[in-house]
Amino acid sequence: MLKTNISDRWLSDEPLSLMTLALDVVESLYGLEIRDQAEVSLFALEQELAEHLGEQLASGPVSGSDVLAALYGPLGLAGDWERFFAIENCLMDKVLIRLRGIPVTLAIVVLHLCERFGVRAEGIGFPGHFLLRLFNDQATDQKQDQSTSASQDIIDPFTGKVLTRHEIEQLLRGARGNLAKLKPKHLQPAEPLEVLTRLLNVTKASFIHHQQFDQALICSQLLLVLKPECPFERRDRGFLYEQLDCNQLAADDFEFFIEQCPEDPVSDVLKAQVLALDLVPQTLH
Q: Is residue 214 within 8 Å of residue 198, measured between CB atoms?
């Protein structure tokens, strides 16, 4: 069951913090107590970073390079190369304890801490590999004309390193093929709900990979809060219901997809699937 206050917050016009959204996901999956524990871990990380930035904080505003050097240096934030697809890398409570994650979860941590320490930064929903943009001015200058030529760096949150244009192009080709061309649209800032959607998709995929279908279903339900009429998400939820032996609910979602996307080749497959589900005894959950 989804928390009503969470879905209401996501659909409100209030500004949304990425860290709050990521912790909302944790709460929806595992409850308020785990969320509270994650917030304790976050506060501890903020305090530890403040200690490492002590001299810079005492002498004036800190820079993005100061924050990155501390996080990816003595504090030990890093991408999890060995267990990239582990569920722990998608869940913010685990990321804050382990200081390991995947690009989107590490980016959320860095963005939160940049905001906390007055560094202007934004997420980039780059194909296949979430990125960060750090501005080499201060967050207090955000009200100035954004078209002014403040220098900026594109950061790989998996490593904390500044990327060259060539390296960004290589990432794009890895995601889209060797003929892909880097365009301005690929480096547009991502809105909070876009980042949340990406986080939920990778989390859902990780749960499915590890055959934890109950948790994957919660992620699917959360995605449907953001886009309730999306036929593809309804189709995916139907597959999860089917795995959980909720045959009528699966059939309802499949029929919605068939109605909305009659020309999609998958619709013919799902028509046969719906007929098969009708023959299976119903299981109530």
A: no
Going by their DSSP bridges, the two strands 78-79 and 100-101 should be labelled as: parallel
Q: What is the pLDDT of residues 53-65, one digit of tens each?
A: 998 888 888 999 9
Give the burial class of 17: count Cβ atoms within 10 A of its Cβ; 0-12 exposed, 13-18 middle, 19 or more buried.
middle
Cβ neighbours for 259, distance < 8 A, ≥ 6 positions apart: none
HEC readout, the chain = CCCHHHHHHHHCCCCCCHHHHHHHHHHHHHCHHHHHHHHHHHHHHHHHHHHHCHHHHHHCCCCHHHHHHHHCCCCCCEECCCCCCCHHHCCHHHHHHHCEECHHHHHHHHHHHHHHCCEEEEEECCCCCCEEEEEEEEHHHCCCCCCCCCCEEEEECCCCEECCHHHHHHHHHHHHCCCCCCCHHHHCECCHHHHHHHHHHHHHHHHHHCCCHHHHHHHHHHHHHHCCCCHHHHHHHHHHHHHCCCHHHHHHHHHHHHHHCCCCHHHHHHHHHHHHHHCCCCCCC
User: What pLDDT digit, counting tens, does each position of 112-138 carry?
Assistant: 999 999 999 999 999 999 999 999 865
* CB contact at 8 A, 147 and 139: no
Unique residue bearing structure tokens 């509270």: 36
How far is Cα 155 from Cα 36, in angstroms, rounded to an integer? 30
Confidence (pTM): 0.91
